[in-house]
# Entry
Amino acid sequence: MQAENSSRHILCNRCGNYTPCQDKAILESLPYILQLNCGMSLSDSEFWQNQVRIHKQENHKSCPSGSNCSNSECKLSHGVEQSSWLPLNFHIKAPNEQGSLQFARGLFDDKENSTVGVFEYELCSVIAMIDAPSSQGLMLHSLVDRNYHQRQGIDDCGWYLFNGCSAIGTHNKEATSFGQSWKTPCTIVYKQVKLPKELFHNSTPNPHELFTPFNLIPGPNLVPLSANENLTKGELVGIGLSVDPAPSCILRVVLVRGQGDHEGIPFSHDVCPTNYAPEGHQNVKLLYFKIKCLVDRGLILVGHSITKQLKYLNIHIPAQQYIDTADLYRPQHSGAIPPLQFLCPRILEVENVPGAHNDAVFSLQLYEKFLELKRAGQFEKTLKAIHSE
# Structure
C-alpha cells in the first residue's frame, strides 16, 4: 500500500489565478480499529461469491512449505483449511518514511526482528445484509472479548450472532461464510490484538436505567426500572394490554411492579401503532426487548387473559414464566372466561375501569387474592359462589 498522490488547483492570493498544486498523503500511524465498508453496490454479492469459489479451488493446492511458509503472497493451502478467503487475522508492518504499508497473513520474512513495528489484527465483527424471500434485514456476527468468557468460566470460541432480539453462539466459519446469494457483508471490522492498556480504565459507569419512559403519555406516574435494582428470579410483574378503538387503533402495553416499594406502579408504558408505519415496528421491537429482558432474568408475568395477549403480540414465553388469572378464576366444566369487569367487584370489591394500567394492577391483586383464598381453603367455595349468582 503506497502513499496517495493527488493534484488540484488552488487560488493564488497575489495574482488571483489558479495554480496547480501536488498533494501527497502519508500515513503516519495505524489505527486500533479497522472498519472496512463493503456491499456498496448490487454487484458486490457476485464478487463475494466469486471469491469464495476461487478460494475453494486454490485451497485444494498445498504449499510445499506448509505452516512454515513465510511468503506473504502465497495463496496455497498451508495445512489449515479456511472456510473463507476473508482472513481471520493478518499482520501489517508500520508505515515507513514514504508512508508505505506491507500486509501479510503470517509473519514477515525478515532476517532481523520480524516483530518490530508489526501489528497483528484480528476479525472482530461482521455486519451482513440478508436478502432472502422470507426475510430482509441486517445481522451481526461479533467476537466477544475472551476475558469475559474466562470470568464466566465458559469454554467457547467467543463468536455470537445477533439477529433482532436473538443472540446465539456461533462460529467464525459462519461469520466468514459468504458463498450464498442472499448474504452479503456490509461492514467488516478488525482490531489490533495487543491494545494499549491506557484504552481500558476502571471508572465507575454512569448510572443508567434499563427501561426508560418511551412514548410516555399522561397518566399514572412511571418509575423506570433501574439497572441496580435487585430483581430476583420468581418475582411478579403485571402486564396489561389495551387497544384504542378506531380510527386510532393504538396498542398500549403497561408493565407494573408486583413487589417492592413501587408495587403497583408501572415501570414501562409502550404505545405501538397497529398499522404498518415504520415507527410502529420500532416501538414493537423495543417492547420485545423489554419482555425478553424480564423473561431472561427469571421474572414471572401476571395478566388477565395473558395467553391471548401474548398471542396478539406474537411473543412466545415459557409456560412456567406467566400466570393467567383468567384460567385461575375460570369456572369448572366451563369454557367461559370471566372478564375483569365481572371479577373485580366480586373478588376485590372495586370497580374496574378499562385500561392497560388498571388491567395489570388488578391482575396482580387477583393473583394475590387467589393465593390468600387457597391458603385459607376457601377458594373453591368462593369461586362457586361468584359464578352461581
Notes: Residues 50 and 325 are 58 Å apart (CA to CA). Residues 203-209, 212-220 have pLDDT under 50 and may be disordered.
